[in-house]
Amino acid sequence: MSVIRSQSITSRSTFLLCLMIAVSILGCDKKKPEDEAPKPITINKKSVVIHDVNALAKPFAFAKTMEQVVATAGGAPTNSVSMLKSVVDSFAESAFVHPVSGKMIEVIPRPLESVMNPTDWLNPASPDGMIPVGLFNRFDLAPADGSNCGEYRIVYAKKSSEPLDRMTIIFEARVPNPNPSKGLAGCAPITDFWAERSSDANVAQTVTALEKLYYQGIPGVEPVVKAENYGLPMGQLRVNLFKTPNPRTVPWSLREFLVSFDLDGRAIFKPEPVDDSPTAALFRIASGSSVFSEEDFNSFRDAFLGQPLCNLVNPDRIKKNASANDIINGISAGYDPRFNDFESISQGNADNPATETDLLLINQVKMRLAALSDLSGVSPAQLMNRAGTMTCGGCHQFSAEDGNNDLGNNATWPASLGFVHVDETGALSPLLNDVFIPQRIKIAQQFKENRAAFHQEAATCPGVAVAAKKVITSDVTKSREHDLYKSVDSIRTKIQKVIQASEAEPDKSAELQTMLQELKQATDSARKQESATQGVYTPARTH
To answer: Fewer CB within 10 Å, N- or C-terminus of the chain?
Structure first.
C-alpha cells in the first residue's frame, strides 16, 4: 500500500509540476492584484462634506490647526495667540488701503469682535471657543489648467451663539497640484482619497482618514493645513461676523484675510479685499464719492458689462431649457479685483447690486442682454440679482430674500441658515443640501471615472477679446515649482534670511519692509493670474 501511495503522490506532483510549467509558458489570464482595475466607487455625500460636530471636535480642534499654521509659516518666532491677535486688532480699524488700487477703503468698525480674546478662541470649553463644524471638499474650484486642486476647507463656529452673538472662521486652503505636468489629472491622489470616504464604514473612520490628509499628508500629497495654503499666494481665511451691540449700525458682514508678515517678520493674518464682492456704490449713481472718481465708475462698469455679465448668464446660453440647478451651479462673475471691498455686508440690501441701481447702468445691462442672441428669459433686474449672489453677502443671505432671489428662467436662489451655510450644530443650508452638494458629488463621480473636466464650456462674449481656448499645462512635476508659486517662494526665502541675520545688521528693518512690499506684489500678481484662468466647472470660480 505504501508503494502505491508513494506512486500516487509522485504522479500528482509530476502533474502539478507540468501544469505550472504550462501556465508559465502559456501565461495566465488572471491579473496580479496591482494590475486589476480599481473597483468602482459610488460617491456619496461623505466624499464632499463631513459635518458631524462631535466626530470633528478633537481631530480638527482649532488650536491644532493654528499650531500647524504657525509651525509652517516661517518668519520670526510667534504663536497662535499673537497670530490671531492680528485678526482681532483689524476689527477696530475703520479703513484699509486697497492692495491693488491703493485707495483707502472704509469699513464699519466692529467694537465687540475687536475686544475678543484669541486665547478664548483656542479653548473649546470657552463660550467663545471656536469648534469645527464642517470639512468641505471644493475640488470644483480648481482651474482648468490644474495649477491647483481647488480648496479644502475647515469651518469653525463660535461655541456659544445667540442671534446677536455669532462668529465663524473658515480656513480655505487652496492646495497646489502635486504634479502639475499631468494637468488636472495630477489632482487624482487628492480626489481619489476623498472619493474613498464614500466606502468608509462609519464617520469615525472618515474623520481619521481626513485628519491624516489635513495634518500629515498622504503619499505624494503634502498636508492641507500649511500656512502657505492660506494666502502665500493662494487660499485665504474668511470670517463671518455678527457680534453686535446694534445690528442697524454694525450689521452682519464677512471679511477675508491672507497669511503675511508684520514689520518684525512675524506671521500674521492680513486683511484682504473680499473676492468677487465689489463696493456696492459702484453700481449706483456717482454722487461725489471721495473714494471713487468718475473714471473709476466708468472703468468698473465697462468691466462689469463685459465678461462678468456673460459669466452670469452663461448656463442659460450653453444649454437651452437649463434647469434651475444648472443655472445656480453654473453662474459666476469674476469681477475686477481692483474694486473689491474689504467687507461684504449680508444683512439688508446695503451691499446688494440690485438695490438703487443706477438707471443708466440698468439700460446698459438691457442692451448687453439684448445683444446676446442666444439668451432669453433674463431681465436686467434678474441679472442684477444674479450679480448679488456672487458676492459673499448675497450668497450668505440677502440674495435668498424675497425680491432678491429671482434669477430668471424659473431659477430662485435658495435659502441659507440665517447668514451661514453650516451652523453651530453642523446643520447644512438648503442651498448646500439641495443644489451645491449634489453637483459636487456629480463632479467627484465623473472625475473619479475618467479624469476629464465635467464642464468648462463658455459661450462667447461679444466685445470681449477671446482668450486662448487651449489649456496650457505646466511641465513641472512638483507643486511649488509651478510659475504661480516660484516668485512668492523666492521672496519668502529672502525674508527668512533677513530675519535670521544679526540684529546688529544695519538697515535690517528697511530691508524687510521692502521685501514685504515685494511679497505683497508677488502675491497679488499670482492671485490675479490664477483667478483669470478659466475654471474647470464654471467660467470663473466663486464662493
So the answer is: N
Task: Quote the CA–CA distance of 345 and 323 in Å, as a whole number.
Answer: 29
Q: Which three cell numbers mark 494?
A: 529672502
pLDDT digits (tens, 9 = 90+) for 453-478: 777 788 999 999 865 557 889 999 99
Q: In this structure, what DSSP letter does residue 37 have?
A: P
DSSP lists the bridge partners of residue 269 as 259
Query: Which one-letter DSSP state was computed for residue 278?
Result: B
- Please count the other Cβ atoms lying within 10 Å of the Cβ belonging to residue 162: 9
Helix 62-73 / helix 80-90 crossing angle, nearest 10 deg: 100
Q: For residues 254 and 176, is the Cβ–Cβ distance under 8 A?
A: no
Separation of alpha carbons 528 and 234, rounded Å: 10
Beta carbons of 386 and 352 less than 8 angstroms apart: no
Q: What angle do CA 478, 77, 492 make, to 5 degrees?
A: 35
Q: How many CB atoms lie within 10 A of CB 369?
A: 19
Which residue stretches of 2-48 are H helix? Answer: 2-26
Cβ–Cβ < 8 Å for 266, 522: no
In angstroms, the Cα distances linking 525 to 10, 445, 468 are: 78, 34, 20
For 190-212, write each residue's pLDDT tens digit.
Answer: 999 999 999 999 999 999 999 99
The radius of gyration of the chain from alpha carbons, rounded to an integer in Å, stands at 27
Distance (Å, rounded) from C-alpha 355 to C-alpha 87? 31
Q: Is the pLDDT of residue 22 over 70?
A: no
Short-list 119, 127, 133, 131, CA closest to 83: 119
Q: Which amino acid is at 495?
A: I
Domain map (residue ranges) of the chain: 2-35, 45-475+523-532
Closest to 258 measured CA to CA, from 516, 534, 539: 516
What SS3 class is residue 163? coil
On the CB side of 198, CA atoms within 13 Å amount to 18
Calpha distance 225→213 (Å, rounded): 9
